[in-house]
Structure formats: C-alpha cells, structure tokens
Design a protein that fits this description.
The chain has about 550 residues and is mostly helical. It contains 22 helices and no strands. The longest helix is centred in the C-terminal third of the chain and has 39 residues, at about 350-390. The protein starts with a helix and ends in a 25-residue tail after the last helix.
Length: about 550
C-alpha cells in the first residue's frame, strides 16, 4: 500500500488547526461565561419578571444548561452566520450535489438540496426562529414537551435522535470513502480519527467549540473547492461545461413530477425540525438575530453549492476517464459516481491542489458531524434524562450526562459508519420520519392553541402508517398501499411522503379539536382524561408526568 504522504500531511494540518480552534473556543467560552449572580433573563432580552412568574421559563433559563448547550446564548451574527451555514453545508451537501449533477440519470434538475435547504432556512426563520428564541427554549423538543407532555416528547425524540445519529454516521462514512480514494489508506483510519477529534473538542467546549470550528471549516470548504475549480475547468480532457450542458442538466420527464415535488417539499419543510438548526437559532444573542442568521445562511447554502455543481458538471464533461489514469471510461461504470468530487480532485487537479481540496472535504464532514453529535446529546440530556427521568437533577449531574451522551452518540455513529453499508439509506428514511411526524407536531404546538397529546398521538400513528405503507425501497420493503401512478418499474410516483405528512397534520388537528369538545362539554367524564389535557386539576405540561 503506497500512502499519499503529501495528502496525509495536508489532512493532518487541517485536523490540527480544527482541534486547536475547538479547544481555544471552549476555553474562551468557559472564561467568559455568565457570572452566577448575573440575571440571565437580562442577557436574553427578557426582563426578570418575564421569567420570574413562570417556573417553566425559569427552568429553561438555567445558566449551566445554556452554557453547555447554547454557548450562553452569546453567538453573534458573524459567527452565527458561519455556523448556521456550516450546519447544512457539510460533506453530504457538497458531495451529494456534485454526485447528483454528475449522475446521468439525475443531473442539475435533481440537485435539489442547495435551493431546498436555502428555502428551508428562510421558512424556518420566519415560522419558528423568532417565536422559539423569544420563549427561551433550549432544545427543539421543549415546545413539544410543553404542549404534549414529557412522554410524548420522549417519543418524538426518537426520530430526531436516530436522524442526527445516522446523519453523523453517513457523513463519516462518506469521509472515509473520500480519503481512501485520494490518500490510498483504509477508510476506517479516517473515520475513527475524524470522529475522535470532533467528539473531543465538542466534549471540551460544547457549542462554543462547534460554532468557532464551523467558521474555520466553512472557510476551508470555500477556499479549498474554489481553488480546485480553475484547474478542473482548464484540464485538457474536460470539455467546456457550457457545450456539454445537455449531458449534466438532467431530463425532465412528466411522470416524475410527483417525485420531484415530494423531495422538494421534504427538503423545504423537513429540513426545519432538526436540533442542529434550532441549536443555532436558540443560541443567537438576540431575538432579531435569530431570524437574520437563517436568512444569511440561506444565501450561504446557494453560494457554497456552486463549486460542487461545477465539479459535478466537469466530471460528466470528461469523455474518457481512462485518459486521465482512471480504470474505467466513467466512474459510474464502477459504481463510483458518488465519489465524483474526490475523483475529480485526484485526477483533474495537481497533487497540491487535490490535497487542499481534500482538506476542504474533511472540514465539511467534521462541521456536520460535531453539530449532529452535540444536538442529539443535548436533547437526550434535557428532554429525556432531566424532564422524564430526573427532574431534580443538578447542573453538575447534567453536565456529566451530556458528556457521556456526546461520547455515546459519537461512538455509535462511528460504529455505524464502519459496519453498515446502507447507513445513508437509513438516514434518508429517518429524514422522511422527521418530515412526516416532527414538522406537523412542531407547527401545531407553536401555532395551534387547541392541539393536544391525543391529537399528537393519533397523528403520529396515522402519519407513520401511511409512510411505511408506501414501501421502503432501499430495504426491499414492498408497498402495502400502491398510491396513484404506481408501477412496478418506477415504484411510487405520487408524492406519498407529503401526503403522509398532511394526514399526520390533519389527524392531529381533528383529534385535538374533537377531544377538546368531548371533554370540555362533559361528553366524556374528566376521569378518562388519561393524558391530563383537560383535567380539572390541570398541571403545567412539563410537570404532568
């Protein structure tokens, strides 16, 4: 095995720089933390009276929780814009965009992630950012538990946890494949080392470390990919991408319109209910900046996708890859289309440039992995461990639990990345569940006053059933329901994910209103209000269980 020494040195330099910045940021955050005697509500833009009359809000404003999970709500607009953008612009984003453009069966038309996530950030900013930041929440699950109770919140945590964990695993697996291509080393080395570094500085500094390393990582991605683009476009074997427009633009077939709409809506609305997004929103220094961070990051997503689109188009514009030293005429002939970005860096740029690009890809992966690990761990620590099992847990105990959770989630993601071939397919399925289940629940708990636990429970069951009944192609699960336009060759052509989401949403509204009428008008005795939504001795939702 001939290790690419120059590339290895480049990756080590990138990783060392990220580790140093992560440790420095954690030290800086702990040094500048809010003094114990300071009124935390004032630093958030609330008055002391706002928090003083509400035990739930006082509970949300715990300084220790805010320090470890939200960087003391002290993220300014510059760092916030970088970390919000880096939340989406990770390894899966830049690799996936290049892959879609290169893929002969997809093309630019199906590269929906850049503009889909950009619109998701704008929609999330206007629908949720100001509302959730003004109420002083710590995690995305807080409003769900306030509205539907701790146990229902714990149930809704499952798709959020699994989605974050599988996302971390998927991008770590992608990193392993990328580095294996360019450096010619086993992918397990890069996966384990990358995970250890990300977990270490996240463990040390919490969101402070994650946010400040995101700044460095986003700069690395931008410079690394843009430095590579001129060399790629000038390569002798790369045709003018304008002349090859027909090869990489993709074909628009009318029968796939429903599928295209389904995935577009999934990205736009299913991209909102993720803790990695709300962690940035809730850590913003002010309520107004929470909205502006989302808007700025939406433009960042589009800008950061441009080099990936160019690289994917350039890869498709090479007539014969064997002329540049590759072993097949096209990477997709060897089922390596998903590696088009690292392959372009390796074969179509000078060695030094490919090393810089590789560092950019590595930085992109870590910027997503650390965020997902911290997000899943924060939700477990607060919304499951504290609110469900240990309501009286001390701040010191919660800090220990958070650190254990970070190590556990990082370890599970690493094991999955090394052992499960279809980890990306698992993440895609979890993304479906986040869209179908979490989005309507989050929307209702913020905007529908009469929504309750009965509606949430029945909505979850209905949405989950119709989504799974549509089949899971990646795992050879046949459809139980063949929606309109179904055929054996193409599968489901109807936007059944969006239909399942709407069924969940409408069921939640209908059952919530019906249960309200039945209980409040004494059609059903209050003693049967098992979820304590309308009971005469009604307690605050956070204290129900």
């Amino acid at each position: 095995m001939d290790i690419n020494v120059g590339g290895l040195v480049s990756v080590i330099v990138f990783y060392f720089a990220i580790l140093v910045v992560g440790i420095w940021a954690g030290w800086r955050g702990h040094k500048n933390k809010t003094p114990p005697n300071q009124d935390v509500s004032e630093t958030e833009g609330h008055t002391a009276a706002d928090a003083g009359d509400d035990p739930q809000k006082r509970q949300r404003c715990s300084p220790e929780e805010e320090e470890s999970m939200l960087a003391g709500r002290d993220i300014g607009w510059i760092v916030g814009s970088f970390t919000m953008t880096a939340t989406w612009v990770g390894g899966g984003f830049i690799n996936g965009t290049a892959e879609a453009v290169y893929d002969s069966s997809l093309g630019l038309i199906w590269a929906q992630a850049p503009w889909g996530y950009a619109l998701s950030l704008i929609i999330g900013g206007f629908l949720f950012a100001r509302q959730m930041r003004s109420r002083g929440y710590i995690t995305m699950l807080d409003p769900l538990q306030d509205k539907f109770g701790n146990r229902m919140g714990g149930v809704l945590y499952v798709p959020a946890l699994v989605g974050e964990t599988f996302w971390s695993a998927a991008i770590l697996a992608a990193l392993g494949s990328t580095i294996a291509v360019i450096l010619d080393i086993p992918n397990s080395y890069s996966v384990i080392i990358s995970a250890c570094i990300a977990v270490f500085y996240t463990l040390f500094g919490g969101l402070y470390s994650v946010a400040y390393t995101d700044v460095l990582q986003l700069i690395c991605i931008f410079l690394g990919l843009w430095v590579s683009v001129p060399f790629v476009l000038r390569h002798d074997q790369v045709q003018n991408i304008g002349d090859t427009w027909s090869l990489w633009k993709g074909d628009w077939e009318l029968k796939y319109v429903g599928v295209w709409i389904d995935f577009s809506l999934l990205l736009m609305f299913g991209g909102i209910p993720w803790q990695v997004y709300f962690q940035r929103v809730l850590s913003a220094r002010s309520i107004s900046s929470a909205l502006w961070l989302s808007i700025i990051a939406s433009f960042g997503c589009v800008v950061m996708a441009i080099p990936s689109v160019i690289i994917g188009a350039a890869g498709r514009s090479v007539k014969d890859w064997t002329l540049v030293g590759y072993e097949a005429k096209q990477p997709e002939d060897l089922n390596e289309g998903k590696l088009i970005l690292p392959l372009v860096l390796q074969y179509l740029t000078p060695s030094v440039v490919s090393w810089v690009g590789l560092g950019a890809v590595s930085a992109a992966v870590m910027s997503s992995a650390d965020s997902s690990v911290l997000s899943a761990s924060s939700m477990f620590t607060r919304n499951v461990y504290k609110l469900v099992f240990r309501p009286k847990a001390s701040d010191r105990e919660l800090k220990v639990v958070l650190k254990v959770a970070i190590v556990s989630v990082g370890s599970v993601a690493t094991v999955l990345a090394l052992s499960v071939d279809s980890v990306f397919d698992l993440w895609v399925l979890c993304s479906d569940l986040v869209y179908v289940i979490l989005f309507p629940n989050l929307l209702c708990c913020i905007y529908v006053p009469f929504s309750n636990s009965y509606g949430s429970t029945l909505g979850l069951i209905a949405g989950l059933f119709f989504r799974i009944a549509g089949g899971i192609e990646a795992f050879s699960v046949p459809p139980l329901i063949k929606y309109p336009f179904y055929n054996e060759e193409d599968g489901q052509l109807f936007p059944f994910r969006t239909l399942s989401m709407l069924i969940c949403f409408s069921s939640l509204l209908t059952i919530s209103k019906l249960s309200q009428l039945l209980f409040t008008q004494n059609h059903i005795p209050m003693k049967y209000d098992l979820l304590y939504c309308f009971h005469e001795t009604h307690q605050a939702p956070v204290e129900r269980f």
